[in-house]
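dumping this here before i forget
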Amino acid sequence: MTKNDNFKEYGMPVVVLVAICFVTTLLLALTNSVSYPIIVRNAEITATENRKELLPEADGFTKVEGIEYCTSSDAKASVTDVYKADNDTGYVMTCVTKSFGGDLTMMVGLDANGAITGVKVTDHSDTPGVGTKDQDPEYLAQYIEKTSLGAEDVKKESGFNFITGASVSGTAIHKGVYAALAQYAQIGGAN
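structure:
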């Protein structure tokens, strides 16, 4: 077998596969460069709609910069961003907590007096039908108008119903709300 035959048998397939990988990578990069800005814009539109749903009196929102974000005592829940209503009607805070299925992202609306106007889970990996029961609007409604919580764990909170079998996700949500209330206190309210 000659060198030319060896190249055709062993080298050419490698060259073809490298070329295919290069072209595929280039096409994926091109697709990402086109789609990524659209994905980011759509995510921001959805987040703004969620903020408006949680604080309907707001006429717009501005991200609060230069603050230290609050975290739960066990570091399983933390505030990741804070948006203030442009007309000073309150705040909407995004929190990420550790739930049964992994990270759970939620938003908490607070009016100018520090009362909760709504809680909404925006992303999760919990088991449908079990861990997601804590995300039902009827369950989350028990937080509305609260200005404080007595404990980070929902099972230790007096007067709160928690769903048996879904206490990990319920506690995750509760810790997120607790962190949002602590954040509101830390930034000094809606001044």
